[in-house]
Amino acid sequence: MRYAYPYEMESQPEGGWTVTFPDVPEAITQGDTEEEVAAMAEDALVTALSIYVEDGQPLPRPSAPDGRHVAEVPALIAAKLALHEAMLDAGVSNVVLARRLGLEEKAVRRLRDPLHRSHIGSVEAALRILGRRLEITAVAA
Q: Do residues 23 and 58 share a domain?
């Protein structure tokens, strides 16, 4: 899945913009310029999606952009979100995956946590254990 979510910008009377994500209601932020809003939108999205991971809940599916701005999560975070979804799909807990990887449960918790830095290779290894393969595509910006 591509973790790219459309967002709406509403100008504020005092200046600046408020950003909301129709598909991720927990993600709300603001900024003074459109450039600042784009950076803040990505941060708000990652933080909100981390709540779903922490609670063990399925991630919301992004709707079609339909002309709206879109925030995408960075590659490592997308891999972590894919790991979270693969674990939910397989019904595999942190403890079970840790045992399969030869790690402590705490290490798997960190692998799934979008707010924790991890090595992409470790996330990729966990995905392989769950029968998934990570693909990365570079496209024109």
A: yes
| Long-range contacts from 109-114, C-beta under 8 angstroms, 24+ separation | 111/80, 111/83, 112/53, 112/80, 112/83, 112/84, 112/87, 113/50, 113/53, 113/54, 113/80, 114/46, 114/49, 114/50, 114/53, 114/73, 114/77, 114/80, 114/81
pTM, to two decimals: 0.93
**Which pLDDT does position 65 carry in this prediction?**
95
pLDDT tens digits, one per residue of 81-109 = 999 999 999 999 999 999 999 999 999 99
Judgement on whether residues 85 and 106 belong to the same structural domain of the protein: yes
Residue 23: give the domain boundaries.
4-72
Q: What is the pLDDT of residue 141?
A: 80
- Contact indicator for 53, 113 with CB cutoff of 8 Å: yes
The region, left, alpha or beta by phi > 0 then psi within -120 to 50, assigned to residue 58 is beta
What is the total count of domains within the chain? 2
